[in-house]
Amino acid sequence: MRILIVNYRYFISGGPERYMFNIKRILEEHGHEVIPFSVHSNKNVETEYEKYFVEPIGGRDATYYREYKKTPRVIYQMLSRSIYSFEVKRAIQKEIREVKPDLVYILHFVNKLSPSVIRGAKQMGMPVVLRLSDYYLLCPQFGFLCRKQVCEECLTKGYRSCIRKRCVKGSLFTSMVRVLSMKIHEWLRVYEDVDAFITPSEFLKKKLVEHGFDRSKIICIPTFSISEISVKRVEQSGSGSYGLYFGSISDGKGVDTIIRAYEKLPDHQLKIVGDDTTEEAERLKQYIREREMKNVEFLGFKGGVELENIVSRARFSIIPSMWYENLPNTALESFQQSKPVLASNIGSLPELVEDGWNGYLFEPGNADELVEKIRLLDSDDKVKEQGHNSRIRFEERFMAEEHYEALMRLFRDVLHGENRLRNAQEEV
Q1: Angle, to 10 degrees, between the axis of helix 279-290 and the axis of helix 255-263?
Q2: pLDDT digit string (tens) for 224-248?
Q3: For the residues 60-71, what does the mean pLDDT come to?
């Protein structure tokens, strides 16, 4: 099968890109051809198909919104990529014409490519499968988070709540653009062109169904993790020496909850892995300096084998999210290395962590409760037992082969144009 995979970045910057390169690898190992469509960047992995990629907003050195120089041209690009880009539509249709894929598998496109990738592919007669990794179809801010609190007002009161509260990047203009784009997408009925939606968690699937999406077109296929340092069952001989947070350091991730907890645990060590140049990271490092905390260490961004080694030496990992986390890779990577996980009791996280079995759940933002859970894992026997259970959870639900088989069943159903998604859901 020839699969055109669409994502707005062709380098690893987070979970969606790790998934993209992992599934590309698995598909190719099974004899399929995977063809990318993306945006040019100086960080991109080299590919012969980059000739089809579109130019980015703000230049090839700019990745994030904060890096854009707000010139008239850049503002126009931001608007078109948020709402609907005919440039992107022409580019993906050119690639489809010339490489002739069997199916288009879309990951992230919002604000960098626009839903024109969906319509452009469908107009070329392509089956389209869309994988969702956040809540952008339901929430202008993508995460049901406003001022570090869960908020669903846009669902109950309408999108004006987003504009009034300036939910998107704290900007009135950006919030208005995002709301306008969602309204136009509804008017265009662009998501009706999607043959099947994939959600990594049952929580996201439930949210979509609650708010009007066709249940028969939505299938939950949990993501997976693959390791570079071990392919067999991993049981660490030691219990590890530090707590670990790894992931993005930004609003909504709740990293400040961990730091406040470790402020009360000066005899416990914490390591934080992630881009420590963000505004939130700088704020947290200043907090640590002011309180002269010696037990917290920022390691910066790590990946690949280096990150796996850091995880393997941890005692447990912590996912302190304030938002409706949607099956984070950090949980799977921890399970794979036989590590208990302490997680906020929110979103999809209770689907992953069974309190007292393979980790503990705590109230989002509650540093005192997190302290209690950390102290429960002072026992080496408990760490080893729960770590063993984490590995069991991983092998039962999050292995690459199971994900591949479920994905291929869905692809075949979509390719054949048969309405068998309900059966496929029952099989997963």
Answers
A1: 10
A2: 988 765 544 445 445 789 999 999 8
A3: 71
Which of 223, 50, 55 shows the shortest CA–CA distance to 133? 223
pLDDT in tens, 182-229: 999 999 999 999 999 999 999 999 999 998 899 999 999 999 988 765
Domain boundaries, the chain: 2-225+400-427, 243-397
Beta strands in 55-199 (DSSP E): 103-106, 128-131, 145-146, 149-150, 196-199
Establish how many alpha carbons lie within 13 A of residue 87's alpha carbon, considering only the half-sphere containing its beta carbon. 17
Please give, one letter per residue, the 3-state secondary structure of 155-191: HHCCCHHHHHHCCCCCCHHHHHHHHHHHHHHHHHCHH
- Give the separation between CA 355 and CA 353, rounded to whole angstroms: 6
Give the DSSP letter of residue 241: S
SS3 56: coil
Overall fold of domain 2-225+400-427: Rossmann fold (3.40.50)
CATH class of the 243-397 domain in this structure: alpha beta
